[in-house]
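Step 1: inspect the first sequence and its tokens.
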Amino acid sequence: MDDKNVVSIEDRIPKLKQSRRKKANRRLIFYLSIFFILIATIIYLQSPLSYVKNVKIKGESLLSKEDIIEHSQLSAKTNIWTIDREKVAEDIENIPVVESAEVFRKFPWTIEVHLSEYNHIGFIHKDGQFFPVLENGSVVSHAYDDIKGKAPLLKNFSKESYLHRMSEQLNDLPKSIFNLISEIHWNPTEENQNKILLYMNDGFIVDASIRNFSNQMKAYPSIVAQLDDQNRGIIHLGVGAYFETFEN
């Protein structure tokens, strides 16, 4: 055997020691890293760093961010990791406008709320302000100074039950026809408590009934298309639809 290819034990020992020292150093660094991560996590969880600093709201139109945060009971002293997300969502869903809510944590200190609101199908005018009416007939306490054609103005609905029925019918109405309505007046008679008058944006008046209103109004575009552009009047919708000019 060639002596040049023989490595003595004395030559190998330093290399073995060096290899073991590197492994030991790597193991020490690994454990120290875990230790410091745990310490940092505990400090973060126990300090104001883990408090909610930002609440993002998505999907709101009738509600203000302040209203939602108030009902959620979130504050700047709420620990983001101790929040019961389902409980916060339930608190927000107690707002009449809200149909459903989902709550998400966004590291490191943001809460994100996704809302689905009930459709608002009209407004009621009171004391110089406009209050939204929802698809379920509820009237929202949050007032607007101007509705800017967002939905029809509902007038004279003094009985809540008829307002609810009207709301349900409007919610089933195609959007293209819904957008043509300017005002709806409840105009009951002894013979027909469901009688309503609609003032349309194109200048016509519609005499109709709350009962089956959404189905009756589907014929409105085809009726108007058959009328003379110069004539305006009342379109009577019922068993048999007919037109009556204002002159008559």
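Step 2: inspect the second sequence and its tokens, then contrast the two.
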Amino acid sequence: MSANNTNNNICDEENNKLLKDFREHLQILKRSRESIRTFYYALKIYLRYLSVKGMQVVGVSSDDLEAYQGYLLGKYCFHTAYSYMRAVFVFYRFLKRVSIVVHNPTDFLTLLKRPRHLPRNVLTESEVATLLNAPDIKTDKGILHRAILETFYSSGLRISELCNLKVNDADTAKGYIRVNQGKGGKDRVVPIGNSACLWIRLYRETVRTKVVRAKSGDFLFLGFSLGNPIQRVTVMEAVKTYGKQAGITKKVSSHILRHACATHLMRNGASLLDVRGILGHVFLKTTQRYTHITQLDLIKAHRKFHPRK
């Protein structure tokens, strides 16, 4: 083995040790499994890049990171590049905090500004109603999917939050859902309407009892084949399929239902703080995106109905 290969192997071992320490740090902070997985994957890509360059995590400069940022932009779409680069920023903040690096190289680098926008075509209330009615409720699978769709629209949950719901998290008598370890490790209580409560209760009492297995644990929504906790990809495919079945030409996804929930709340008079609490946003400015849609609604209505167009 050449000296260069030996040095590269040593660099790789040291870099991977730091990544392992970082993952343990996130676990101590009780970050969600999905968040840890996302960070870990992004940083594995970063470490592969460093390995090719023969570089160590602790010897990286801001110029090196700027070059890496350019590499990401050339290889991935903007949002993916942003996500991967953000993981690097968080990683180096951790390394500085535990004194692995003396100077944080990201201090001298500007992270790409992530564009804040909403889907161009938010579902209307009638389109959501058509979507909710799409599953065949004469079947067990249809009842499961109807309960999932109703829950998404009523609560505005993220898909990971819905998949991680436990049986006792949904209190259909009092009309709320407990979200444990949501984004950023935050817990919150989210109100849900009577319709969502009805379908959750029906699913829980008539369908879940048929598919539950010892390995199902106390997860609320279960897959039909093995009784495992339902997977994100299963939910995503089901929502997309029902969108097509309902004849909706707009993009339909679980996140679109989250946007629809927030937008319809705002249109019907809910306050910014109320919507922020329901969606679990850390910053109010994130929720303020929805005021843009309601303002556009007012402009369109004015242009359509005012006599002095």
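Step 3: confirm your contrast with the notes below.
Residues 267 and 298 are 10 Å apart (CA to CA). The longest strand covers residues 176-179.
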